[in-house]
């Protein structure tokens, strides 16, 4: 029980770091170095492929920050790299789906904004920590509820464009 709790906490720390680092860096740099990943590409449905808020800067820091954090919580740097890459993949996937549904960039789609960003990294952590299906479900649930609960605070701090 104690090991499972610790594994969940470590996973949540890395998932949270990966998902908050891009917003933190945007706060520091504003629009500098913020080239969109999709390069402005319009998909056949007339909407952007990912949208303007998915940037190369955000992708890089979303992978780099948990990579650097991992050794401080007793995990190899590769664990953080995989979590960061999986979180950014989940974020891009949710943005792609939201654009297809006609949801504007930075607007909320309940579940779609939280689940891929936590589920994919939690699965990636299985290479480094024993995580059961219940543990992975707990990570997704805690991350999702936490993201929604903290959203108004992140908005006031300038880390979110809109409160959820």
Provide an overview of this structure.
Helix 1 packs across helix 4. The model has no long low-confidence stretch (mean pLDDT 93). The relative contact order is 0.17. This protein starts with a helix and ends in an 8-residue tail after the last helix. It contains 5 helices and no strands. It has one domain. It is globular and about 50 Å long. The longest helix has 28 residues. With 164 residues, the protein is mainly α.
Short synopsis of the structure:
With 164 residues, the protein is mainly α.
What sort of overall outline do the alpha carbons produce when their principal axes are compared?
globular
The total domain count is 1
User: Number of helical runs?
Assistant: 5
Number of strands: 0
Beta strand %: under 5%
* pLDDT averaged residue by residue: 93
Largest sheet: none
Which spans of ≥5 residues are poorly predicted at pLDDT below 50?
A: none
For the termini, the CA-CA separation is: 33 Å
Structural class, from helix and strand content? mainly alpha
Rg from Cα: 15 Å
Helix content: 55-70%
Helix and strand run = HHHHH
Task: Give the SSE map.
Elements: H1 2-29, H2 56-69, H3 77-100, H4 115-124, H5 133-156
List keywords for this structure.
164 residues, 5 helices, globular
